[in-house]
Amino acid sequence: MAATSKAVFTFDDGFVDGIAWMSCFRRPATFFVSPGLVGNNLMPLYVIGGYEEEFRMTWKHLQKIKAMGGEIGCHGWMHERYDQIDRGSALTFLRHCDDEFGRWIGKRPDSFAFADHKPGHLDLVGQFYKHIRPIPATAKAMFLKKGAIEVFVWHKATDPDDLYGTTRTLIQKQAEFVTFGQACKDELIEPLAVERT
Ligand SMILES: [Zn+2]
Description:
Layout: E1 6-12, H1 17-25, E2 30-33, H2 59-67, E3 71-74, H3 87-105, E4 111-112, H4 122-128, E5 131-132, H5 136-146, E6 149-154, H6 160-172, E7 176-177, H7 180-185
Parallel strand pairs: 1-2, 1-6, 1-7, 2-3, 4-5
């Protein structure tokens, strides 16, 4: 009997490897993107291991992902660190995100992931988003506590062979892929706790 019954994949930063994975496997996953950087290949986010930042998804890609059952999540306006900005700026960025998500995918997403996994102004972000992704290690521990479930966070620096190999193994094990938002709704995972007023 396979140990893993559910898998949650989250892809950060909105690179085209996300749409490639989704098109290849047709399994739901969550794509945390920064609206201010969608389709913007001129603004480097970071460069790791020789990867250049030239391959960001466009809104068209993201609309396709949504149509295929994927979840779009927010990853800050331009990947800003909420632990490093003041409250006024945080609010401005959150509103920019609302405007852009509204324009392109019709509404604000349910899920949010902090850039570099560094929370800040959690109460404020919690007023905008229902589910906030804990740091991956914590998320994984939570998932595992709840039963046979695994969480994977993929981003540009991830080895694509690992990504595809892991995905194929999970499919062979008949794991059910669920989005981060769905996993939160099903109480398979507790998002970062926020004080809601
Ligand atoms: Zn990121």
